[in-house]
Write a structure and sequence with these properties.
Low-confidence stretches: 1-50
Distance between the termini: 15 Å
Number of helices: 3
Mean pLDDT: 80
Largest sheet: 9 strands, antiparallel
Structural class: alpha+beta
Strand content: 25-35%
Shape: globular
Helix content: 10-25%
Number of strands: 13
Oligomer: single chain
Length: 209
């Protein structure tokens, strides 16, 4: 069971990292084996009943990012896009198989969030990846926060090194924090325990599941 959970977490991290790199530079992440190709052909017009500046759209919580919730029907998510935001379809590719996902963003949060779906048979939100610094928890934790700040708010159960990066997992919060390991000893990453990670290590993305 633990192996399956870890595979799902690291798979999502790889997909999110690959999509973000495609948006930022068009270059593949040397540590990831996945690729992502975006299509702009299916953009949904925003719902005029919600203000684009509403801070609730940028709050991270357990099982939720903004107004998008884990388990939320995809049709409902697509029908409730806030004013000034857009949702566009994205194709994620892993080992020759293609997966449909969605990017929700606006002009001030261009990286937005990556929403993955699970269809059994009705499609629902399965996982949410955050790379945008504007998203924060109620305690102010987000991309760019220091690991020392994270552990004070989100107890870390374990860390793991995968193809896409170094991950600190908080099962209680339902979040995985992908850390910037560039300043860490690469030869010892697989041995590091949660209490051995330097407090100033930065969060470079967050996965909600």
């Amino acid at each position: 069971m633990l192996k399956n959970i870890m595979y799902a977490i690291l798979l999502g991290v790889g997909m999110a990292a690959c999509l973000a790199d495609h948006n930022n530079t068009g270059q593949a992440d040397a540590t990831a084996n996945t690729t992502a190709d975006e299509t702009m052909s299916d953009t949904v017009e925003p719902d005029t009943n919600t203000e684009a500046t509403d801070p609730a759209n940028l709050v991270l919580g357990k099982g939720q990012a903004g107004r998008v919730r884990i388990g939320m029907p995809i049709a409902e998510m697509r029908s409730q896009v806030p004013t000034g935001w857009q949702i566009r379809d994205t194709t994620l590719q892993l080992e020759g198989q293609q997966y449909t996902a969605y990017v929700l963003s606006n002009s001030e949060s261009p990286h937005g969030m990556l929403v993955e779906q699970l269809c059994e048979p009705n499609c629902q939100v399965w996982r949410i990846s955050i790379r945008d610094t504007n998203y924060r928890t109620a305690q102010g934790i987000g991309v760019g926060s220091k690991y020392g700040e994270v552990v004070r708010q989100h107890p870390i159960d374990y860390t793991s090194l995968g193809e896409a990066g170094f991950v600190a997992v908080s099962e209680k919060s339902g979040m995985s924090f992908i850390l910037d390991s560039s300043q860490l000893d690469q030869n010892s990453l697989h041995k590091l325990k949660p209490d051995q990670i330097p407090a100033n290590t930065l969060v470079r993305s967050i996965l909600i599941y």
